[in-house]
From TrEMBL:
Enzyme class: hydrolase
Highest taxon listed in the record's lineage: Bacteria
Naturally occurring in which organism (per UniProt): Imhoffiella purpurea
A GO molecular-function descriptor: hydrolase activity
Similarity annotation: Belongs to the CRISPR-associated protein Cas5 family. Subtype I-C/Dvulg subfamily.
The protein, known as: pre-crRNA processing endonuclease
Known EC number: 3.1.-.-
InterPro entries, A to Z: CRISPR-assoc_prot_Cas5, CRISPR-assoc_prot_Cas5_N, CRISPR-assoc_prot_Cas5d
GO BP term (any one): maintenance of CRISPR repeat elements
Function field: CRISPR (clustered regularly interspaced short palindromic repeat) is an adaptive immune system that provides protection against mobile genetic elements (viruses, transposable elements and conjugative plasmids). CRISPR clusters contain spacers, sequences complementary to antecedent mobile elements, and target invading nucleic acids. CRISPR clusters are transcribed and processed into CRISPR RNA (crRNA).
Keywords, in A-Z order: Antiviral defense, Endonuclease, Hydrolase, Nuclease, RNA-binding
Length: 251
């Protein structure tokens, strides 16, 4: 840990960080987004308290820097995607308690073939990335009520990351693209970023309001964007509260 920040080296065979303007066909940014990078840190360590229908997070991860260690390489994929999702309330309240039998989510067919209201599947084209590797630097930003616990939060993350522990498999944009990680110590980093300068235009920053002290299941997305420019393979990420991050309503 350096100056309160943590660094992970992250890699994987496939990745897709979908541009929000591509609604039907997935087309990846050439670089991991801060939102996807935050998700990797969250998968290793995140803490919150549930208060009824609300969740009160203790902190959020602020991505500080993204270093690209492999040049962007695209690959075209065609995938079958299901249109429905398993109802979370049914899983928690009925299926896990045994009060109802689990209902399968059929990947093929729809109402005409299956006699159900399921929508079946659809084929979508994906322009994904292959053989990606990044060095991600982030820091814990505690909520006001938990600032006194920041040192303990940092220590907890270091213990988990060094041991390769995570409470869910980190992924690179899509859950079927797993991410592998290694905690980077304070020692001199051997592999430098790629020598690439590129203006990426408006990039998705996040889909949640990271400044909120309480969130509720089912809240609408809070889309924020920023002007992204990669210099010598390094993308500097502004703080979420910065004016450089464009938020709904100009917040």
């Amino acid at each position: 840990m350096t100056n309160g920040t943590h660094t992970l080296e992250v890699w994987g065979d496939l990745a897709c960080f979908t541009r929000p303007e591509m609604k039907v066909e997935r087309f990846s940014y050439p670089v991991i987004t801060p939102s996807a990078a935050r998700g990797i840190f969250d998968a290793i360590y995140w803490d919150a308290r549930r208060e009824g229908d609300w969740v009160r997070p203790y902190f959020h991860w602020q991505i500080v820097r993204i270093q690209v260690l492999e040049p962007p390489r695209y690959i075209a994929l065609r995938r079958n995607e299901v249109k429905d999702r398993v109802p979370g309330t049914a899983v928690l309240n009925k299926w896990m308690k045994g009060s109802a039998d689990p209902e399968p989510l059929w990947a093929d067919g729809g109402k005409d073939e299956l006699g159900t209201d399921q929508k079946g599947r659809t084929q979508r084209q994906t322009m994904a990335l292959k053989r990606v590797r990044y060095r991600l630097t982030a820091q814990i930003v505690p909520k006001p009520a938990f600032r006194a616990e920041q040192a303990a939060m940092n220590s907890q993350f270091v213990r988990r990351a060094r041991a390769g522990k995570c409470f869910q498999q980190p992924y690179l944009g899509c859950r079927e693209f797993p991410a592998f990680f290694e905690y980077v110590e304070d020692a001199v980093v051997a592999s430098p970023p790629i020598a690439l300068d590129q203006h990426l235009g408006l990039m998705l920053y996040d889909v949640f309001d990271l400044s909120r002290e309480r969130v509720r299941d089912g809240d609408p997305p809070f889309i924020s964007l920023f002007e992204a420019t990669m210099r010598s393979g390094v993308l500097e990420v502004p703080p979420f509260e910065s004016a450089a991050v464009k938020k709904p309503g100009g917040i």
